[in-house]
Design goal:
The protein is an all-alpha fold and 99 residues long. The chain has one domain. It is built from 6 helices and no strands. Helix 2 runs antiparallel to helix 3. The termini are far apart. The relative contact order is 0.11.
Length: 99
Amino acid sequence: MFDLIGIPNEESNNKYDTKNWTRDVCTNLIKIAAKNEKYVEPAVELISKWKCLDDYTSKVETSTWFSYSKLLDEHLTGYKQWHQEQRNKDKNKGKSKTA
């Protein structure tokens, strides 16, 4: 399935974790969505934007209390807009540094 949507099958750069990070995150999102139907739409949205996945999952990766289920809840209830605004701010910061 991941090959069909274009997610590359690259090995991890981390010598302690040989899994493909993007595919691993997408697999976790699919498992959660399979258990709870309300998460199907946000999981599909996040997976379809897999190139920006680390923007969305940074909160999960840096916090022990924040889970993928909470990420899907936030995405479902409106944090999608917040993430988009953050990504735009980061892009603008990069442009202003190069200008």
